[in-house]
Amino acid sequence: MRLSALMLFALTACSDGSTDDTDVTEDSGTTEDSGSEDTGTAPTCNFGSEDPNGTDGVQLSGVIRDASGNPLEDAEIGLCKSVCRSLCTDANGAFSYTFVPDDTYSFHVAPPHGADDLVELVWPLTFSGTATTQDVTLPALPAMTTLPSTPTEVEVATGLFVTVGQGDLGVIFEPDPTDIGAAAMTSAQFPLPAGTFVAGWYMEPYDARADAGLPLRFATPNGVTAGTTLHAYMSSYDDFGWLDLGTFTESGGFLTADNTTAGKITVLGTLVLVDEN
C-alpha cells in the first residue's frame, strides 16, 4: 500500500490500546505481515469498516472514486491528530466516521493496494459541531520528471515551476526520491484555507520532505492580470493544516514570490493558489 511512512508510524503508535484505534485490526492475523504477499495474494485494506466506539462528536462520511467516477473499494482513509483513526471504503467506495470531536485533523486518502496509478491525497479538515460530507476523487498519477543532478528549475506540471535537484527530497524510512511530478486540479474538492480557488496541484511523491526549501513560481493562470497578487498554501500532514507559502505577484507572464524565504516548498502535498482580494 502506498501509505506515507509518517502515517504508517502513526498507525503503529495507534495500536497500543487507545480507544481511538479499536477498529485497527493489524494484530488479528489478517495484515500484510501474514504472508499474503509471499503467496502472490494481494493484501486488502485491513482496517475496520466502522469507526471506534464513541459518544462525542459529529459524523464524517463520503465516497472515494477514481478519475473516471468509479467507486474505489478498500481505499484507506485516515483522520489524524495525536493518533490516526483509520478505516476502509466499502464496495461502493463509501466510508463513515460516527464520532469526530471538534478539532482540525489531517484527512488522508490512499488508493487501494495495487492502484499505484492513482495519487495519494492529504488536506486539513476542521469540525465545529456540524456533520461533514467529504467526497474525494483520486486523480491519475501524473507524468514524473527525473530530478536533475544539480538544482535546476523544472516545470513539474503545466504552470508549476520548482527549483530542485538530486538529494533535495527525502522520505522517512525510504530511499530518496529520484523524480517529482504534480497532478493539476481545475477546482478544489476540499475546504480552501482562504479566498477563492485560482489553481492547484497534487504533488508527488506525496509527503516527500525538502528541508532546505524548494523555490517555486507559477505561470500566470488564465484570467489573472498584471500586478495581481495571489496567495499559495501547501497542505502538511504533520502540521494538521496549511503551510503558508506567502504571496506571489504577477509580472511578465509569471507569478513570483514576494518573499523568497517564505515562497519555498518544504513538503509535497496539496498545493493551492487562492485569491484573497
Q: Can you tell me about this structure?
A:
The protein is globular, with a radius of gyration of 19 Å. The protein folds into two domains: 134 residues, Immunoglobulins (Immunoglobulin-like); 131 residues, Sandwich (Chondroitinase Ac, Chain A, domain 3), CATH 2.60.220. The N terminus is likely disordered. The protein is mainly beta and 277 residues long. Strands 9, 10, 11, 12, 13, 14, 15, 16, 17, 18 and 19 form an eleven-stranded antiparallel beta sheet that branches. Strands 1, 4, 7 and 8 form a four-stranded mixed beta sheet that branches. A four-stranded antiparallel beta sheet has the order 3-2-5-6, with helices on one face. 3% of the residues lie in helices and 43% in strands.
Summary of the model, kept short:
With 277 residues, this protein is mainly beta. Helix content is 3%, strand content 43%. The strands form three sheets. Strands 9, 10, 11, 12, 13, 14, 15, 16, 17, 18 and 19 form an eleven-stranded antiparallel β-sheet that branches. Strands 1, 4, 7 and 8 form a four-stranded mixed β-sheet that branches. Strands 3-2-5-6 form a four-stranded antiparallel β-sheet, with helices on one face.
Ordered list of secondary-structure elements with their pairings:
Layout: H1 5-13, E1 58-66, E2 76-80, E3 84-88, E4 94-100, E5 103-110, E6 121-127, E7 132-133, E8 136-138, E9 145-146, E10 152-157, E11 160-164, E12 179-185, E13 196-204, E14 209-219, E15 229-236, E16 241-251, E17 254-257, E18 264-267, E19 270-275
